[in-house]
Amino acid sequence: MIQNIPEVKLGIIAVSRDCFVLSLSQNRRKAVAAACAGTGVSVFEAQTTVENEKDAVKAVEEVKAAGCNALIVFLGNFGPETPETIIAQLFCGPVMFVAAAEDTGKDLINGRGDAYCGMLNCSYNLGLRKIPAVIPEYPVGDPEDIALMAEDFLPVARALIGLSALKIITFGPRPQDFFACNAPIKGLYDIGVEIEENSELDLLVSYRAHKDDKRISDVVNDMAQELGEGSRYPDLLPRMAQFELTLLDWAEAHKGARKYVAFADKCWPAFPQEFGFVPCYVNSRMASRGMPVSCEVDIYGALSEYIGACISRDAVTLLDINNSVPKDLYEEDIKGKFDYTLKDVFMGFHCGNTPFCKLKKEKNTALKFQLIQNRTLENGGTPDFTRGTLEGDIDAGDITFFRLHGGPDGALQAYIAQGEVLPVASRSFGGIGVFAIPEMGRFYRHVLIAKHYPHHGGVAFGKHGKALHTVFSYLGVKDIAFNQPKGMLYPTENPFA
To answer: Which of 211, 220, 224, 385 shows the smallest number of beta carbons within 10 Å?
Structure first.
């Protein structure tokens, strides 16, 4: 159950230029609210229609008193450009600006609102005042159109509200030679995210303090019930339950002035031996609650996961863009069955942090041990403290692979690529899936490599590119890359290749 994300309470304020008929904007606002209700979008109607700056103050006070944390400013007619943009300044939350289409060709004298024109002045004033705002791809419509815009706005607003009250808590520096997990934190402050950095020792001390916690048995039972036949190590569950409670208690005690928390933890090489397990399964459970724990102290990975959780209202995961699909596997299981070339497919993998609800319910989906760490730390012998991965093939279905990242120069950049997990057996270990993204080969070379992205990508289940792009644009990210189709060259792409 997703718990660590905000609920959106949406308000709508209508604006009216004082040389237009006031009732035109008011009646159109009522029609929009009715259309929203018809699509299942609950919206609070401010009764104050804004014609001047004093109206703007009064209307914002009205929606704030109603508990609204996201807002639609509706140009029911041309609109007063200064008061309508002041609304966004005063509101201090995500705001979408939309405009009314004309109602009928039979009433284009007193019934004409000119909001099509007014939106131009509105956007100009937003730019002058440097006010971020959501403006849909085509922001002019009838009530039913605007209700759909409101529906699209909800996941965007949820992510923006969440980020404004998010604290990322870290434990430990990144592992040696993992410079790809570098995280210049200035970018976090630029978008309003708080960060708390701690030592691994702080976490270990807190973990030990939870020994014999009376709640451990309840968490063990919950783990066993979730895993079912996949609960291969009953003796390990109390250790992992103790760690889960440690993280949850730390989040509650350290969120401070913030409402929401994500973690970025160091999980190797010292962690397994000192804690007695690898934390992958616990990380998977935290992600399923909307409180992601990124691997290898990947701060921007945790940030990306949290954004994905807010937008999708679903469990997310963080995966390595890991290995190519062997030609023989492609020939046997993909070619001729799916419309993808060998270069369009790859395997997304991590040790075992993908939530159980996103894995295939097969006999092989189970609590296992980290094969690579076992070789290194236990000499390939009978696993003990390298146990704790949740392994299995990821369920087939639509996905969005994405990342918001602080680049080598500290500037924020992002990518978004929609694709799918294929119903093809991985034949490998870990939490893993065969991913297909159109034109992945070119995207891999001219975005992921050319722009120096790390190996970790956030995965949201479903097609969420539209909302992600809107969020990143609102946050002021200048470089938002995507998997460009054939014939659309990347700046670094050789046209003669």
So the answer is: 211
